[in-house]
């Protein structure tokens, strides 16, 4: 019987999976908007961002600057779901909220988990996320997280979950799919990685996948975790 292939590298989705984008978005909202309302706006804004990306994939359009996508998504969400907040969000306020997406902190358990995967397990760790390289560089600075390389949809020329987005990144690091683990808080992301042949670990974040059936998601992937505290141990045992 052939020996099981052990992981040699880990791809991490970034915002949501590693970073608390929600707190940053809520804190960036004007003080005139109540925090619970700002939270609802942030969650729908984020979902609309995913919907915008999905539409661009459907139309076979190239990745665009995430700031442009977020701006369009904000305008749609305000018009369709939060018209009562439009008076609080002029162009200056919306621009401020978009800029603040470039500054996010890691979820509390993430720095130690990634450090352990790098140092204790000796694995290479990469960001593999939609967005721009500039955004990822800014988020590395604000979060203090350390990776071997950053792969953005801008750099790859493809959005996840396009299968070629995963294949191209694998080609760059010269690893086979079965040698790499994809870690994400987004089921659509892991579904793509799974199709390519990568191992998949779902991280449940209350801020993400708000339209997914978690009972279904729990059984879809190799591992389902509530956070990253046990991630190094789980990867070591894959």
TrEMBL record:
<protein>
    <submittedName>
        <fullName>Haloacid dehalogenase</fullName>
    </submittedName>
</protein>
<dbReference type="InterPro" id="IPR036412">
    <property type="entry name" value="HAD-like_sf"/>
</dbReference>
<keyword id="KW-0378">Hydrolase</keyword>
<dbReference type="InterPro" id="IPR023214">
    <property type="entry name" value="HAD_sf"/>
</dbReference>
<dbReference type="Pfam" id="PF00702">
    <property type="entry name" value="Hydrolase"/>
</dbReference>
<dbReference type="InterPro" id="IPR006439">
    <property type="entry name" value="HAD-SF_hydro_IA"/>
</dbReference>
<dbReference type="InterPro" id="IPR023198">
    <property type="entry name" value="PGP-like_dom2"/>
</dbReference>
<dbReference type="InterPro" id="IPR051540">
    <property type="entry name" value="S-2-haloacid_dehalogenase"/>
</dbReference>
<dbReference type="GO" id="GO:0016791">
    <property type="term" value="F:phosphatase activity"/>
</dbReference>
